[in-house]
Each structure stands twice: as structure tokens, then as C-alpha cells.
Amino acid sequence: MPVLHVADAGDDRLADYRSLTDVALRRRLEPATGLYMAEGAKVIARALAAGHQPRSILVSERWLDSVEPLVPADTPIYVAPASVLESVTGYDVHRGALAAMQRPELASVADIVRDARLVVVLEGIVDHTNVGAVFRSAAGLGADAVLVSPTCADPLYRRSVKVSMGTVFQVPWTRIETWPEGLGELREAGFTIAALALADDAVSLDDFADAGHERIALVMGTEGDGLSRGALAAAAQVVTIPMAGAVDSLNVAAASAVAVWALVSGRPGGR
After folding, report:
1. Quick one: 189 and 258 in the same domain?
2. Which of 61, 154, 178, 271 is the most buried (most CB within 10 A)?
3. What is the Cα–Cα distance from 199 to 141, expressed in whole angstroms?
4. pTM assigned to the model
5. Which residue segment(s) compose the domain that 241 sits in?
6. How far apart are CA 35 and CA 101, in angstroms?
């Protein structure tokens, strides 16, 4: 296994890792070059376990022993001082290890939902932290898949992967290419499309969970404006989480956890 020590932040071999804090740059660069970043030994291990292929690894000296055994033998490992890592990436890499991973080809919606009973659908969520947190809730509480709209933030962006604790590699997911028309494919597959939103005709989450729908696609909207008119129109039912204390709604990540737990608990064979 090639372990290569690097002392110069300008080294061309570290180009994949440069300016990771520039969101606009990475949003263009990473998909175009077919890569994404995995950070920390645990996340890197989950990416590798999912069958994803590393292009290279960048570590500080103290993290080399924990990462080296995980990596395929032909993957270059660049070892650099913490100061070089920070200069290259733009931030203090607390977990001491980064992997430039080959971005896998996304599966079709039909393939992702074929055996699913509960699918979380994200429309236009642009905060990578929220996307990662939704994936973590989906994995931990029992959703079968996640679908994201064309305007949703990249689940494989470094911050999303980190916040999800690598569960973006565990939960099957893909993008719906046409929106909101693509929701029709879920309807045709037998899913009841439920829009999590505020509306006068909304039913409570408990009542919806008790209704015993066989397959559910739970659609959740943006942090500020909520779901679009098109997404609401495509839904068979608007569902709301009953709230107290004059609070009308939860953050989308918290709402996803509450909703997934209720819907998994309420189905036959659930918790």
C-alpha cells in the first residue's frame, strides 16, 4: 500500500481535497469529477463496506494506523501534518482522515423502491446538515429508502455524509429526475403519497399511521417555505404533527424522525 508523506499544501496530488469549505465550488466540482468526500475512519469504513471505491486517502500521522487497514492495497494514502490538512481543506479536520471516493452511479427510482414500504421524499432541502440528519433518522428508525428532488442538496456532500454518520451509504437513495411529476411513479407503484405540511384539511400523524396504509411515500419540504404547490397537489393526504406550546412546526430533520418513528411503529410488524 503506497503511504506517501506530503509537506506542501500546494502539492497537485491533493487537488481533490482543496477548498472543501467552498460549498458553491464543491457543488459544481464533485459531481462533475465523479467524486465525494468521506470524513473520519467510521464514515470511510461504511463507505467501503457499501462497495464504494476510494481514489485516495488524506490523513494526519496520528490517524494513519486506524485508517490504513481499511483501505484497498492499491489506494494511495497521503500523510500530512495537521497544518497542511487545514491549509488544503480550509478547516480543522478534527477526525484526522479524509477519503476522496468515486461517486457511484445512482439507481432508478423503480429499483430503489421495489421492496420498500416507507419512503422519505425530500423536496428542495438545501441545508446539507438537515439532509444528513434525515438520512440518519431514516436509517435508525426504519425507513426503507430516501428519494430527493432535483433541487435538494447533495446527500454525498461532505457535510451531509458527516452528519449522517455514514448512513447515506446504508439507506438506499436516488434522485427523482422530474419534479413533481416523478411522484406519479410512486403512486403507480402503490404508494400513498403523504405531504407533511400545515393545512386546514390535514390529518394528524397518529391518525394517518393508524390508517394502515400498505406503502407510504412521506414528502417533506424546504426549511423555509415548506412544500411546493405541485408537491401538495400530488399528495393523497396532507399530514401534520400535532404541536403544543404555540409552536406550529419542527425543523425538517426533527420532523422526519418523529414521522418515521410513528409510521414504522404503526404498521404491522413495526416496533
Report:
1. yes
2. 154
3. 26
4. 0.91
5. 109-265
6. 5
